[in-house]
Amino acid sequence: MARQPPPPALLRLPLFLLIWGAASLLMWVPATHALIVDDHATSRSFFYAGVVGMMMVTFIGLSMANRRPRYGMLGQLLSLLATFLVLPLFLAVPVQDALKTTTYLNSYFDMVSAITTTGADIFGDPGRLPPSLHLWRGIVGWSGGLLMWIAASAVLAPLSLGGFEVTARGEPGRGGRAGSMMERGDPRRRLMMVTRTLAPLYAGLTAALWGLLMMSGERSLTALSHAMSVIATSGISAVGGLENAQSGLAGEMIMFLFMFFALSRLTFSKDTAVSGYGRLDKDPEFRIGLMLVFGLPVLLFLRHWMAAFEVNASEDLEQGLRSFWGAMFTIMSFLSTTGFESADWGAARAWSGLDTPGLILMGLAVVGGGVATTAGGVKLLRVYALYLNGLRDMERLVHPSSVSGEGGGNRRLQRDGAFVAWIFFMMFALSLALISVVLAALGTSFENALVLAIAALSTTGPLVEVAAGAPIVLNQLLPGAKLVLCFAMVLGRLETLAFIALLTPNLWRN
Questions:
Q1: 192 by DSSP, 3-state: which?
Q2: Long-range contacts: 127-131, Cβ < 8 Å, 24+?
Q3: CA dist., res. 473 & res. 465, Å (int)
Q4: What's the pTM?
Q5: Could you tell me which residues come within 8 angstroms of residue 250 by beta carbon, excluding any fewer than 6 positions away?
Q6: What is the pLDDT of residues 388-435, one digit of tens each?
Q7: 283-287-293 Cα angle (round to 5)
């Protein structure tokens, strides 16, 4: 067997160092934009930060050039943790320097929110930020989504994490036979191969959505911000939401179509599909997503006549169609953990007569999108595994000695997939309870603490504005509460099983 050539010198550097270098280069994009729009102070902040970042990466890279990584796949998982938790310390420097009217903690919170694709807006008023800062927030969120696309196939799948523990044969954090072979080999080659395959597709989808939004009448910066947010499911907007956008209904319809990429990885790649199960129409995640996206709006639409008797039934057809579209778009947005609210969502609430629609949106965010996508939440595949297990238990209540015939059509799930999914769901619930209690202990009301915990763990930041009785002002939280939310956002992005895998003795023995 021919021996593989060694990887290029650049790829021998730690993954976190490469990501840091890429982030430093990206800072020159808003620096150039600010220079074009004559905002020289903001341009200097990003340009100098990028230069300092590249100098530090170069010096550290030279000092580590002859060292070989010792930790394999788990080392890359540790690099992901450092990217979400440590890298925002650097990303926040030009934000705080350019804005000058906020604290460094607020800037750090905003960068953690962006890179984890949570999209919790701590600044509130979009007019407070210069256009280049809006561009930077969108770029960071977009980069975080790309990182999760790549990490799902190159890091999480071989370790049976991130939802793959439901389908893989190996133990979570260790992987199966294929994962062991990759661990003994060079995981950097797989990382490079996945990046070369997915990065052009990710950028191409973003460019296509950007162009379509501009064709629908949206301004360039706003269209780019919304395009990056939809593809990355970050929910970051340069104008404070779709109600302030100029693309109108046409723009919402275009974004709705691109949100389908968050329901299943099969919509854009088959690199993690089980052999023989690469058809999108047979994918349980996609089918459950379609059922929720189209089924819930029908129920809300019919509630106008079934439950809200006090509402006049002689409403015109246009109002009914607007309410149906507003419900369908908003449900799709929160199921994919993007968090954009349709301009017609108010019409949907009035039509159905709902007093507490925030509960529906929180439930959708907790369910989340597909495995190995940019969406957060529990994930549709785990919900499907629990559904099959519940269906089988009900069959055994009627026929205790029966033999299930569902296994032949659901070989994508491993034998103990439902058990592993239940374990994850319980850990998610315990994390939710713990974060809520800690936030309540730091002075937040119980209702707001629960909403904040769900928004952070499901990476759906816009929940803080629509789920509670009144919008939660993040800027008014205590510093301790902001740090707790930062940890919760990282925990929701990487998931609890990944944190447990990082506690393995093999990673820390040396």
A1: helix
A2: 128/99, 128/101, 129/99, 130/34, 130/39, 130/42, 130/98, 131/33, 131/34, 131/37, 131/39, 131/221, 131/238
A3: 8
A4: 0.91
A5: 216, 217
A6: 888 888 888 887 776 665 544 455 576 677 888 898 999 999 999 999
A7: 145
| Of the candidates 181, 174, 12, 145, the residue with the CA atom closest to the CA atom of residue 503 | 174
- Which one, of 232, 259, 394, 281, lies nearest residue 328 by Cα? 259
CA–CA gap between residue 367 and residue 483 (Å, rounded): 25
Q: Which long-range contacts (CB under 8 A, 24 or more apart) does 31-35 make?
A: 31/132, 33/131, 33/132, 33/135, 34/130, 34/131, 34/132
- Cα separation, 418 vs 409, in Å, equals 15
| pLDDT tens digits for range 32-77 | 999 999 999 999 999 999 999 999 999 998 888 776 665 567 788 8
Compute the distance between CA of residue 499 and CA of residue 487 in angstroms, rounded to an integer: 12
CA distances from 332 to 136, 297, 306 (A): 26, 10, 24
Q: What is the pLDDT of residues 493-505, one digit of tens each?
A: 998 888 888 877 6
pLDDT tens digits for range 108-125: 999 999 999 999 999 988
What is the spatial distance between Cα 330 and Cα 192, in angstroms, rounded to a whole number?
Answer: 36
Give the alpha-carbon dihedral of 392, 396, 399, 405, to 10 degrees: 30
Cα 285 from Cα 370, distance rounded (Å): 6
**For residue 20, how many C-alpha atoms fall within 13 Å in the half-sphere facing its CB?**
27
In terms of Cβ atoms closer than 10 Å to its own Cβ (0-12, 13-18, 19+), residue 359 is exposed
What is the Cα–Cα distance from 86 to 224, expressed in whole angstroms?
A: 27
State the Rg of the chain over Cα: 23
Amino acid at 160: S
Q: How far apart are CA 132 and CA 46, in angstroms?
A: 10
To the nearest 10°, report the CA torsion of 309, 311, 312, 318: -120
Q: Which residues, other chains included, contact 480 with Cβ-Cβ below 8 Å and sequence gap of 6+?
A: 442
